[in-house]
Amino acid sequence: MPDLKEKTVAKENTGRIGPGRLVLVVGPSGAGKDTLMEGVKIELGDDPRCRFVRRLVTRAADPDSEDHGTISRRDYAKLSSGGGAALHWEAHGHGYVLPASLNADIRAGRTVFANGSRKVIGRAREKYENVVTLLITAPRDVLAERLLARGRETAEEIARRLDRADLDYPADDSVITIENTGSIGDGVRLILKRLGY
């Protein structure tokens, strides 16, 4: 029969990671997630309570879009199966990884911001004690206008993209919804207020 110390270790090994919180930033293309997160990062400055994690993606980085790290399919498979990923998922034909290094920040009590996906919210809640889903969205016509302004897709391709997108997220206490239709400053201030900064 294991002694008390062994029981405590076993409990810690099966428990969720905390006490810090993971803020998973999600929402449809064109909602302005990266713009608002850059604003939040600037406002928080060098606040030691916060970290911003760069996700890794199996596609080349686009300087006009999200600033992510690029990895090969082989590296994705290695990270996702070998413990190098805190969370990983597949979407739009690409693999996405949040590096396992974020776990140390959460164990140290920090708030970690990371671009995520609706696909991993359930797994994140199973793995971490405190998960906040930060849903940044906008009305469909605003999303369509922003995507068209990027010039990467035709109006028909954008309509199909928005038809496929799941723009509705369940409302619960761990989901903070920001409708990004005002100024960047307004959006950033609202995010900080809702997160308690």
TrEMBL record:
Name recorded for this polypeptide: Ribose 1,5-bisphosphate phosphokinase PhnN
Pathway the protein contributes to: Metabolic intermediate biosynthesis; 5-phospho-alpha-D-ribose 1-diphosphate biosynthesis; 5-phospho-alpha-D-ribose 1-diphosphate from D-ribose 5-phosphate (route II): step 3/3
Keyword Ribosomal protein: no
UniProt binding sites for ATP: G27, P28, S29, G30, A31, G32, K33, D34
Source species of the chain: Stappia sediminis
Family: Belongs to the ribose 1,5-bisphosphokinase family.
Keywords associated with the record: ATP-binding, Kinase, Nucleotide-binding, Transferase
GO cellular component: cytosol
